[in-house]
Design goal:
Chain B: Its EC number is 7.1.1.-. The complex is a heterodimer of chains A (729) and B (104). Chain A has 27 helices and 5 strands. With 729 residues, chain A is mainly alpha-helical. Chain A is elongated, with a radius of gyration of 36 Å. The chains are: A mainly alpha (729), B mainly alpha (104).
Chain lengths: 729, 104
Amino acid sequence: MNQVAAPLLTPEQNSLALWALLVLVLPLIAGGLVLIFGKKLPRQGDWLAIATTGLAFFLALYLFFQVWENKTVHVSWSWFQLATGKTSIISFTAGVYLDNLAVLMLVIVTFISLLVQVFSVIYMHGEWRYHHYFGYLGIFTFSMLGIVLSDNLLLLFIFWELVGFSSYLLIGFWYEKDAAVLAGKKAFLFNRVGDIGFLFGIFLLYTYLQTFDLTLLKNAIATGVNQGGTFIFPVLTGQADSVTLSYTLLTLAGLGIFCGCVGKSAQFPLQVWLPDAMEGPTPVSSLIHAATMVAAGVYLLSRCFPFFTEDALLVIAIIGALTALLGALAATAQYDIKKILAFSTISQLGYMVMGMGVGAHDASLLHLVTHAFFKASLFLNAGIVIHAMHHAAHEFSDEHSDVQDIRNMGGFRKILPFTFYAYIPAAAALVGLPLFSGFLSKDAILTGAWAWAGLMSQNGNLLYYLIPVFGFGSVLLTGFYMAKHCFYIFFGESKLYKEPELLRENKTAEASGLLLVPVAILAVLSLAFFFSLNPFSYAGSWVMQGVSWQKLLTGQPGLSGGLLPAITTYLHDASYISLVTAILSVLLAVVGIWLGWLSYKKAVTAGSLSTITAPTSGFSRLAYYHFYLDAFYEKVIINPFMRLSGGAAAFDKNFIDYSLNTFAKIMVVLAKLIGWVDRWLVDGTVHLLVKVAGLIGRLGRFMQNGKVQSYYIFSLLGLILLFLYILAF
Amino acid sequence: MNNIPLIPVLLLGAVLFCLGILAVITKRHAIVVLMGIELIFNAANLNLVAFNRHQPDLMQGQVFSVFVMVIAAAESAVALAIILKVYSYFKTVNLDQIRHESDV
């Protein structure tokens, strides 16, 4: 592994790596300081957290302009060494890997973290653990940057877990609420399920290829030769012979790594934690559960793309498509403003994962970037709306109405005009309307999926077309639920704000700059213009060109072999696909919006706009309860597990404790017995000896009494005894 | 006179010996104890003489008893001298009272 420190390391690369490390630790230092000393600092230290994140952002920008489309920096240091035998030592390295993707993610994470922290200053104002909040955000930003910068899987896994931990802290931030505690626990546990798979994947790769380093792994796999189902890798460091690996094993390793993505990126069947995670503060939902952390799974897929075989990619594509469709379906039946966005996030993550699976690697990453901006924007705006609803419910409504239920909302177009104008571009980007960022990325993914299906179904199996069909179906559903969402929130009559002065008051509340600046910036960044000079075509997108597989994977597509080049040529030959996809997706989105409008109109005319009822029809119930996945887990996993643990506890109490107690009693009896023996036999013997010695001593003393005559008697007696002895024998 | 049997003489010697022992053991006065010792000597002498008479070929027994008498006289002189010194040191010749502190 020592060959990581390649000779082409220049001082410039070293300094860039050090700058990257600085970006990494800045949020941690600030977070730690705020967490510990926050109470004593003025304003509880929020300025410190924001300033350091801002500094980290500018450093990230510097790194971005140094590295983007320019060079790749890989610096690693010796981490620790383990002795495997008497002579052999394996050394592990840890380092920084900066390529186009890493610096792009660096900028996005620091940027959105900065905006969210600025937003939180007002949003979280007056919270009694205000400084903890900023401390946790600092820890989160640190861990997320760690994932982005890690050059090996082990380090990445550590940061991966740290991200899960900080997510847990922030979901359960309001731990006075039971729901928040439960949601945090649920998120943590569901992530663990995925992480076990991830760990197994890492172990598999390490066991056979003897390295955690991503670059080395990539190189090892690139040099592997496929010989009829088995891959033969040439000599690796520390190994005598070449390594032979079966295709199945490699697929399993890839799927193991994908498990980590399934957990973190809320893919089917582990996606149920994400809607519950909305119990956390809304800015947290924006940063962690929409823009960055959940996208880490997609980032991981991109980093590990060479390790996926064609079969693994097929599974990834299916899971992604299924998640996209299920998430969108579930979103249509929700009425909680944050839950709709959460399900929409699941659906969009499904898109990204599907994109990875179908080999639309760059499209998927583009979607990651655009989604980060528009979804963060949507969540922050939702935060403003909820804030206003709280205000209204507090001032006006005497009933305890659910402030997050969109059926209680309405008319916010007039009450929060700025938010409205910030919300619409983000929503349009999510739906995928032209001129907005989501259009580019979604179009790219769908085109990729279509091309992949076309390529794969050349053997006559048309089932592959289900993947793009799922994707297109989700476009329609996305249009539907987002239109409904917007109409319910922003149009119609306000149900809570009926008094004009209250309305005016809230208008001034909205105008607080610290709330609106982040929202405005994110809304502007929802425009396609920033991601591609030609807002109607993703082909010219600078992001996509920067993260294309030719550049990121240095032209080595890895185990999937010829799939990526084949798709590229297929697309090149059938260029109509791109155009048809664009037209079709826009059409579907418009139809979806129109359906959403119809559904809203129907509710308005039926007068059932604000009647809050549980869903009645079979399908809407199915979607509302998220296909009863939670109930399924409850029945199939949690309940049996609880019963098992109950049984184990009973066994423990009735059998193990009982036998232990009995054993203890026997031991006590035995001990008493031994004590008796000790006292009477051992001690008795000793005492007897002592007494005998004493007796002898007394006898001696008695004889030696200083009286001449008694000495004489004794000698006489001795003489008589001697005579008797002689006579007797 | 010639046919005095051996056994009664020996018995007499034994009686004398026992009386001597008795005197040595029981009497407190050092000079009386010395006298008991003389009795024991004489008992031994009597035995020697008796055995000599029983086997008269040699005069060993009689000669030996003369030696014993001489030595006993010398020994008595020494013992009396010791008793005198003891008396001058302890101011008593009572054996029960003659005792060093270190002798218990």
